Structures are given as C-alpha cells and as structure tokens.
Amino acid sequence: AITAGESFVQQRTLAKIGRMHTPGKGIARSSLPYRRTPPSWCKIEADKVKEEIFKSAKKGMTPSAIGVVLRDSLGVAQVNAITGSKILRILKAAGLAPELPEDLYHLIKKAVNIRRHLEKNRKDIDSKFRLILVESRIHRLARYYKTKKSLPPSWKYESSTASALVA
C-alpha cells in the first residue's frame, strides 16, 4: 500500500522529468475523473458511440480528432467509460486503425513541412537544426514502436519517401 508520504515522493520525482529537446520540466496536464462510470447526464449508448467512431474513421479522421468530435457534438466525456475500451482499440478490432501511429504521423508531417520550408529558404540555419531534432524524435519513436510491434521491423523513415506517407 502506498502511503500519503510515498505518493508525494513519487509526484516530486515526476516533476524532475524534462522535455526531450527543450529545457522545460513542466508536467501540466488534465486529470481524468476518479469514477470510471459514465456521468448520469450522458444517456448515449455504446453501440451509437461505436457507430460514430466507425463513421468518422472511414472519413479518415485520427483517433484524437474522433474523440474531439464525440466530445463536442455528442457530449461523450470518455469513450472508455461508455464502451469499455478506448477509441484506438475499437478501431483496431474493426480493422480501421491507421497504419502509422498518430504521434509518429504528426512528427513525419512536421518534418516534411520543415523540409518544404528549407527548399525555399536555404539559409535558415535554425530550421535545419529543428529538422535534425524532429527527425531524431522520429527515429526514437520508430524504434519504440518496432519493439511494441506497432510497426513492422523493416520499417524505416526516409526523408525522400516521407511526403508520400503523410499525403
């Protein structure tokens, strides 16, 4: 059992974790409600939520964008509380999950945009440096996803083919 003192110590060690390429050490984030049951005002059923998830995924929306739409239009606070599983797991079970993990996809998109900027602005040294940092994050994430079997072991990030992955 964790006592109040130990949890405080754990929180203090969490605060010392820093960002990868910036000096920041912030841990600002929102917290989930303690109760894992859906709120009393949320009357929507799990089947309707799953239908909306499938409909949005077929339009090409990412799991986080689907969550935002569900929150804003249907008033679904947490999909997990209503359906019993998260959006990405529901999509994987239906075979509609994106082939690239979302965070890796957005990093590749950022690298492609920086490269496009550098083609026009060759002398932008700061952007060259930022591109190196973004690409090192891509390589690190790819290594992680290969160990977790989310990416095939032969997958490799190449800047020449990256724009095709994002398009």
Helix fraction bin:
55-70%
Classify the secondary structure makeup into a structural class. Answer: mainly alpha
What percent strand?
under 5%
The main pleated sheet reads as: none
Q: Which stretches are low in confidence, meaning pLDDT under 50 for 5 or more residues running?
A: none
Order of helices and strands: HHHHHHHH
Number of separate helices: 8
- Intertermini distance: 50 Å
Report the C-alpha radius of gyration, rounded: 20 Å
- Globular, elongated, flat, extended or rod-shaped: what is the shape? globular
Describe the structure.
This protein has 167 residues and is mostly helical. Helix content is 58%, strand content 0%. The protein has helices at residues 4-15, 46-58, 63-74, 79-83, 87-94, 102-120, 125-147, 162-166.
Helix-strand layout with pairing:
Elements: H1 4-15, H2 46-58, H3 63-74, H4 79-83, H5 87-94, H6 102-120, H7 125-147, H8 162-166
What would you say about this model in short?
The chain is 58% helix and 0% strand.
What attributes does this structure have?
single chain, 167 residues, mainly alpha, 0% strand
